[in-house]
Amino acid sequence: MIEIRGHARGGQGMVTAFEILAKIFSEVDDFQVQAFPAFGVERTGAPIQAFLRVSREKILNRSNIYYPHLVVVFDETLIKQVPVLNGLREEGAILLNTNSKIEDIKLETKNVYTVPATQISLDKGLGSKSLPIVNAAMIGAIIKILDIDVNLVAKIIAENVPSKPKENSESAIIATKSIIKSNEIKDDLKKYLNEDSLDDKKLDKDKVTKVNDQILDFPSWDKPMSINKTGNWRVVTPKYEEKPPPCSTNCPAGTDVRLFVKQTSEGNFDEAFSTIYEFNPFASTCGRVCPHFCQQSCNRIELDSGLNIGAIEKYLGDKGIKRKFIKSPITKSEKIAVIGSGPAGLTAA
To answer: At residue 45, what are phi and psi to the nearest 5 degrees?
Structure first.
């Protein structure tokens, strides 16, 4: 089995390229294939990964590829951002989309292939100068490395690309003629296509588990759990963290919005009014004229719709006007003039 890991930027067509490669291998011979991407909500231009397994036997491994035979880099600037060579096998190689000379490329591995996929794609009008679509050219380079019939590949590419089938097919053919490899490459990666991944003679003894001399073709652990270093997840308990609600923190009057809404929902209207009155003696007025920053920042907006806090405040204010207020005694002789008749000014007064 051969394992290939790809690194690209969102929008370069790598995911489509690996899907097409899977179709190519399944059609050219009796291969089992597995192709899938690894990305979330990345924007166009963000680093992403894709994985491809090709085998003569059934593929049971569904994990990401950590020890690839071939690393394919669609954008050479990723080398400085992403550890693209992580886990590359000693006999493995890297295919790099670049116009640079191989002798000028400084990498930890000497097994390097290069192809000017960007230039090929631009010449064929695939994508734009800011975001060329290089997937067809990279497919051509990969099938050249693995010695697959380019004419059959060109046909499959033409049938599976969303647009410009002729240009995509031609870019793949040009790429097969433009690929360059370093002098250090001695290993033929094609041989891994026909290798049995469970061949005892080919196994990495540090990575494969045996039980009673039987090779296990699935993840397993046969040592004491005390040496299974899993980090601190076994002893750490998740804890709910309650943070200040945005409705309360965005209230200019400093009212505990969350509390009076809760009290209202429980039918405790007098308590709810008292909660507002502690900071704002004009609940009825503010319920009508305040822009309600609390309501604008309500967390429920992202869930369904924001809570109508203004209507609740207005209701409590109208209801609270009827209650009897105890006049507070005057304890200071100084007088203060408050300029401003908005909610903040009225509350301050």
So the answer is: 95, -10
